Amino acid sequence: MIQKKLNIVRRAFKGTDSTHVGVHIYGLFIEGARWNHEQKVLEDSLPRELCCDFPEIYFLPTKISTERADASEQRDSELYTFECPIYQTPERSRILTTTGLRSNFLTSVYLPTKRPPSHWITRQVALLCEKNEK
């Protein structure tokens, strides 16, 4: 466990060249689901597994299309895309009165999945920067 944490720190502070664009995010946890590393898709949690480690995410600045595919038009053989929120903490109930946005909401990422987005929304799946240690 200690070696794993040391490797994360070493990778986080490893020097990059001047042409480096984007940012690597380490240390997130996924709550309410798990990540299948082999198939690279979101899946249901294993029994008694509320929260688990999520792999590194690489954010690359990119211009994206404003058009979105309608989830209801996707076929079973295709992968769906779930817009997964990222929160600072497991607490998600606080809302800013000035903006109406959640105070600990950071951003969201699009994750591939074999299930429709409604499945993950119902399970309140989210990525977290910290997890409950209770």
TrEMBL record:
Keywords: Cell projection, Cilium, Coiled coil, Cytoplasm, Cytoskeleton, Nucleotide-binding. It is found in: Cell projection, Cilium; Cytoplasm, Cytoskeleton. One of its GO terms (molecular function) is dynein intermediate chain binding. One of its GO terms (biological process) is microtubule-based movement. This is Dynein heavy chain C-terminal domain-containing protein. One of its GO terms (cellular component) is cilium. InterPro entries: DHC, Dynein_C, Dynein_C_barrel. Residues 16-129 form the Dynein heavy chain C-terminal domain.
